[in-house]
Design brief:
The complex is a heterodimer of chains A (407) and B (435).
Chain A lengths: L1 H34 L7 H17 L7 H14 L7 E3 L1 H12 L1 E4 L2 E5 L5 E5 L4 H5 L5 E6 L2 E2 L6 H8 L6 E8 L2 E8 L1 E4 L3 E6 L9 E6 L6 H14 L4 E5 L8 H9 L6 E9 L2 E8 L11 E5 L6 H11 L5 E3 L7 E7 L5 E10 L15 E2 L13 H18 L2
Parallel strand pairs in A: 11-12, 12-15, 15-16, 16-19
Antiparallel strand pairs in A: 1-18, 2-9, 3-4, 4-5, 5-6, 5-7, 7-8, 10-11, 13-14, 13-18, 17-18
Helix pairs in contact in A: 4-6, 7-8, 8-9
Chain B lengths: L1 H39 L31 H14 L7 H14 L7 E3 L1 H10 L5 E2 L2 E5 L5 E6 L4 H5 L6 E5 L2 E2 L5 H8 L6 E7 L7 E6 L1 E2 L5 E6 L4 E6 L6 H13 L5 E5 L8 H11 L3 E8 L4 E6 L10 E5 L6 H11 L4 E4 L7 E7 L5 E10 L15 E2 L4 H5 L4 H12 L16
Parallel strand pairs in B: 11-12, 12-15, 15-16, 16-19
Antiparallel strand pairs in B: 1-18, 2-9, 3-4, 4-5, 5-6, 5-7, 7-8, 10-11, 13-14, 13-18, 17-18
Helix pairs in contact in B: 4-6, 7-8, 8-9
The chains are: A alpha+beta (407), B alpha+beta (435).
């Protein structure tokens, strides 16, 4: 009897501990804003905002936008005074879509949404997706989600944010197909957005080596793992060298860039960050993570004018260490890091919090990386079958393979 | 029973002691949780990665909700993050406030509703005395940002210096105009006669922005000009704007020309930026019989109509009105009424589309707020605002025409009045004004 009581007490204590620990954990967040000294409260200025707000409300002739729209406008205006194109305010819906992309997955029904010139929302179900299984057909025009009318002129974000939701929840989709109006109840499933694609490039002639082609579209939470998987599978298939395609890669998560670059480097830094602190400028280095899967194999990197940010971090590090030549065009030149702060209403602020330098200290902002081998995209390459930059890169990789094997 | 009670008491004591111990341990664990939480999140502000997921929800409940609808909690949250993380110097709180007001006003989607910073508001007030010293150009706000030169006056400093209609203004005397309203840019451009102003301009066919420096002057342009055209058979009058003397001077000019018994009359409202509505009404009265001239509506649905009388001196003579993309405001009201009553054919280009009234109000910080409080409609209830007046016959005028001194619009008007010849249909330009 005493034993069971003691057991009860211990259990009580344990659960209390857990609860208190949790409370402490949460409290640290609550504390945070109060600890930051001198929180900005500008009573006078807010009074001025009140003044303008009420005057507009009173006499403006057009449709007065909602409070939310006006508040977002004001915040956008505040951020515009910084004169930094990368410090921006992002509204809840676009932010939700962006978050999905950076996670590389979301809860959805597996349809591609396209807006035609007339502003109609056209659906195309992906193969084996919940949407396809439910009976959605390519060309169906979306007119309602969960009873809310979808009207012409709505943005992609607006529509996508409504269709997406938590995995396992139901969404009611209303479409027009010809003369018919059809309604589907579809359970949302996990939809994956891979960030890396890879394939083997076989040698054309006898004796030519097999190469591994790795295309990275964006740096998301899954990119590091996918890059490792790509290298492992390509190695298994006999690849003797790798070609990383970073063309049209606009960047993404800094950590994903560090993880990816680390696959190909055996030491040193991937990048150096410069930040501001109350005591002045500080430097943060991001070291190569050990255990890279392709530290020595011959490597080339394809870049173009749309290779930006996180993609330039990878390309810059590989170029600094002479690990791989860059082939293609001068890159975009975005040498800053943004922190994203999410607010309770789902909106967020992207704030430029650092500039970054390549491991050897090159600043690329507004400059870009100059390729070691210039290979402009030719104007006649409208058809997707021709890719002279890729051909140039394959040639360069074979040459490196040759010099590598020669001695 | 007795024993049982005793055990009970000692057990209560024991429980109490244990509870106290538990509480102490609990507090310790709470602190540990707090500490670990702080440690893991890297201090009270996170750092390091390019994407940081949310900290705690903002303390929205601690900041009072303002009855106006201004979300100070969200704004403070943004400012707090900026303060701690922004890689740059924080602007002054006045500048941030100016930005917030601009952004809020921009969210209304009306290019004529504008916030004017205190320093520019001051210049505008000084300027309201009526001295018209500047460079002789009119400006307009481009939706999506930017201020553009709409028109340069013949022989005025801007035109002599090489400024062209269509040029976008990037900076005035080195001050970037990015985000400023036309009112504010105008304040920067204007100044006393004899002083210089440097405009940094962007032009479609020139890859990089370039500077033009001009000397400000008193802009002296005749309000009304008149002549006989078409072999002396057609009376031509042009009106520069609808300022206070417009109607009186036009009446005199018209009287002179009508003495020559013209077969037709051309009223040139091209490049006329508008002015006083009362003047537009009086000018309209010269040509129109009695009837509604304009309908004005405000935000509360109040409606006001202004009407012409039947005393005009040119009510019946065949007539053409010339307009272009820089015909705005009162000029559009007049052209619209004349078109509605089929008093004349309107020839030229689609007009600007500014049929609204702004009420300037001074704010407590000395800044100015101009709110669109009224919209204008033609007698047949056609909206002017954001629509403009579509000419009956579209006749474009190219930059080349202008450079060579040709005036196809005037030619078309003369041909129409003398020969009854309808101008050939041309593809209608969707963008006004002239490139």
């Amino acid at each position: 009897m005493l034993n069971s009581r003691r057991l009860f007490l211990i259990l009580m204590l344990l659960s209390w501990s857990a609860l208190l620990f949790g409370a402490g954990w949460i409290a640290r967040g609550q504390l945070a804003p109060r600890v930051v000294p001198q929180v900005m409260t500008l009573p006078t200025d807010y009074r001025l905002l009140d003044e303008v707000w009420s005057r507009v409300q009173e006499s403006f002739i057009g449709q007065v936008p909602s409070d939310t729209v006006r508040n977002y406008g004001a915040i956008r205006g505040m951020l515009a005074t910084l004169n930094d194109r990368w410090t921006i305010f992002v509204e809840p819906q676009p932010r939700a879509i962006q978050r999905d992309h950076l996670r590389g997955q979301f809860g959805g029904i597996g349809v591609d949404i396209r807006i035609d010139e007339a502003g109609r929302i056209l659906l195309t179900p992906r193969r084996n997706s919940p949407a396809e299984r439910a009976g959605i057909q390519a060309g169906d025009i979306l007119i309602g989600v969960d009873g809310t009318a979808i009207t012409e002129g709505m943005s992609f974000e607006d529509v996508a944010a409504r269709v997406r939701g938590e995995v396992g929840t139901l969404v009611r989709i209303t479409v027009r197909r010809g003369e018919q109006t059809l309604e589907f109840s579809i359970t949302r499933a996990l939809i994956e957005i891979p960030s890396v694609e890879w394939r083997v490039i076989e040698g054309n002639q006898a004796g030519e080596a097999t190469l591994g082609y790795i295309s990275i579209r964006q740096f998301t939470e899954r990119t590091g793992a996918e890059a490792r998987q790509a290298i492992a599978e390509l190695r298994e298939a006999g690849s003797q060298g790798y070609l990383i395609d970073l063309r049209d890669n606009s960047g993404g998560l800094l950590n994903a860039a560090v993880e990816t670059a680390s696959q190909f480097l055996s030491g040193g830094n991937v990048l150096i960050e410069r930040k501001r602190s109350p005591s002045g400028e500080i430097t943060v280095t991001h070291a190569v993570i050990s255990g890279g899967l392709a530290q020595l194999q011959p490597l080339v990197v394809l870049v173009n004018a749309n290779t930006a940010s996180a993609a330039e971090i990878v390309a810059g590090a590989l170029q600094d260490y002479n690990r791989a030549p860059l082939i293609g065009e001068k890159t975009f030149g975005k040498g800053s890091v943004q922190l994203v702060f999410d607010f309770s209403d789902g909106s967020s602020a992207h704030i430029t919090a650092a500039k970054w330098l390549t491991p050897k200290g090159r600043a690329i902002d507004g400059v870009g990386l100059t390729p070691d081998i210039e290979a402009p995209r030719l104007p006649h390459e409208a058809q997707p079958s021709v890719d002279s930059q890729l051909e140039r890169a394959v040639k360069a990789l074979r040459a490196r393979l040759h010099t590598n094997l020669a001695p | 029973m007795h024993t049982h009670e005793r055990t009970s008491i000692s057990s209560i004591l024991k429980t109490a002691l244990l509870g106290l111990l538990g509480l102490t341990v609990g507090v310790l664990i709470f602190v540990a949780g707090l500490g670990l939480g702080v440690a893991i999140s890297g201090g009270f502000e996170q750092n390091g990665t390019s994407i940081v997921e949310p900290l705690a929800p903002p303390a929205a409940d601690t900041e009072q909700n303002r009855p106006s609808g201004v979300d100070t909690a969200l704004m403070n949250d943004v400012l707090r993050r900026l303060r701690s993380q922004w890689y740059g110097d924080m602007p002054s709180s006045d500048k941030l406030t100016d930005g917030a007001l601009r952004g809020m006003v921009a969210s209304l989607g009306d290019p004529f509703t504008a916030y004017i910073e205190p320093r520019y508001a001051k210049i505008l007030e000084e300027d309201a005395s009526g001295t018209f010293e500047g460079i002789g150009a009119t400006l307009r706000q481009i939706s999506g940002g930017g201020v553009q030169i709409v028109r340069t006056f013949e022989g005025a400093p801007a035109q002599k210096g090489g400024v062209l209609p269509g040029d976008m203004i990037e900076a005035v005397n080195g001050t970037p105009v990015n985000g400023l309203s036309t009112y504010e840019v105008a304040a920067l451009v204007r100044g006393p006669k004899g002083t210089t102003v440097t405009l940094t301009l962007r032009r479609a066919d020139i890859p990089k922005p370039f500077d033009i420096t001009v000397v400000r002057d008193r802009i002296n342009i005749p309000l009304v000009t008149g002549k006989m055209v078409g072999n002396g058979q057609i009376a031509y009058v042009s009106l520069f704007d609808f300022s206070a003397q417009a109607s009186a001077q036009l009446t005199n000019q018209l009287r002179e020309l009508l003495k020559q018994n013209p077969k037709g009359l051309i009223l040139d409202l091209r490049d006329n930026p508008g002015g006083l509505l009362s003047q537009a009404l009086e000018v309209g009265d010269l040509f129109l019989k009695d009837g509604v001239f304009i309908i004005q509506r405000d935000s509360k649905g109040n409606e006001e109509r202004k009407s012409t009388t039947n005393r005009g001196i040119a009510q019946d003579i065949p007539m053409v009105v010339l307009v272009n993309g820089a015909s705005a405001s009162a000029a559009e009201v007049l052209a619209g009424a004349i078109q509605d009553y089929e008093r004349a054919k309107v020839i030229g280009e689609q007009t600007f589309g500014k049929g609204s009234v702004q009420l300037p109000q001074t704010l407590s910080n000395g800044g100015q707020l101009r709110i669109t409080i009224q919209r204008w409609y033609t007698p047949k209830n056609r909206a002017i605002h954001e629509v403009g007046i579509k000419p009956d016959y579209a006749v474009p005028m190219s930059v080349e025409d202008e450079a060579k001194g040709r005036d196809p619009q005037l030619d078309a008007a003369v041909d129409y009045l003398l020969l009854g010849k309808e101008p050939a249909p041309t593809p209608f330009p969707t963008v006004s004004p002239r490139p």
